[in-house]
Amino acid sequence: MGQEDWQDYNLVHGGFDKTLVIITYVLMFFTAVIGPLIVWAIKKDDDPATEAALRNLVNFGISYTIYLIISGLLTVILIGYILTPAVTVAFYIFIIIGIIKSSDGEIYKAPFTIDFIK
C-alpha cells in the first residue's frame, strides 16, 4: 500500500497509535536508528497503520544516518564541512515536522527517505 492508501485506511479505521509514533519521533532525537527499530520490531504486528508509520521512521533514521556518514567522509574533500551540518539540521527539522504531522493523525514520510524496509 502506498502512503495515500494508508491515509485512507486511517480515515476508515480510526487512525494509528499517535502517541507511540510521537514518542518514537522524540526517541529519534537521541537514538537515530536503534530506538525506532526496536519499537517497530515490537509493534509491527499490532496495527497496519501504526506499522507503516513506524516503518517510515526506521527508514528515515537509516537513510539520514547513511547521509551523515557519507557527508562525514566527504570532509576529506572539504564539501563535507558544509553537508554534515546541513544534513544534521534537516534531520532534526524533519523530526519536528514528523511530530507535528503525527499529532494531526498523518503518516509522515520525510523527503529523501529510502525504503529499506518495505
From TrEMBL:
The question of whether Cytoplasm is a record keyword is answered with: no
Q: Which InterPro entries match?
A: MamF_MmsF
Q: Which UniProt keywords apply?
A: Membrane, Transmembrane, Transmembrane helix
Q: Which domain of life is it from?
A: Bacteria
Q: How does it sit in the membrane?
A: Multi-pass membrane protein
> Which Pfam families would you find in this protein's record?
MamF_MmsF
Q: Tell me where the signal peptide lies.
A: none
Q: Is Transmembrane helix among the key words of this record? A: yes
Q: Could you tell me where this protein is found in the cell?
A: Membrane
Q: Which residues cross the membrane?
A: 20-41, 53-70, 76-100
**What is the protein's name according to its record?**
DUF4870 domain-containing protein
Tell me which species this is from.
Jeotgalicoccus aerolatus
